[in-house]
Amino acid sequence: MPEQLGNILKHFSPDMVRTVNACRQLDIWQKIVDERIGKNTEAIKIKDRVLHVSTSTPTWAQELNFLKNEIVMKFNNQAGAEVIIDIRFKPNGGV
Description:
Blueprint: H1 2-9, H2 14-32, H3 35-39, E1 41-47, E2 50-55, H4 58-66, H5 68-79, E3 86-91
Parallel strand pairs: 2-3
Antiparallel strand pairs: 1-2
């Protein structure tokens, strides 16, 4: 499957490839957090190697801040490279 995706991506513009890669990287969030966190958060974007995550409440944002270093490490391990260096949690009021 990765080979097939690589062959398909060869036909896309560099901007499109970056967009596809960014979407793949955002999907990592749901793979590394447990179900409870996953239901109360959403990975929004990665900008300047900072992952931006929306949380359902300010309490979730605060709690996840305490786990930030561990989550960054898990995220990068899953990605196979140092994709992010920080995470910003922002309460959205409803994910």
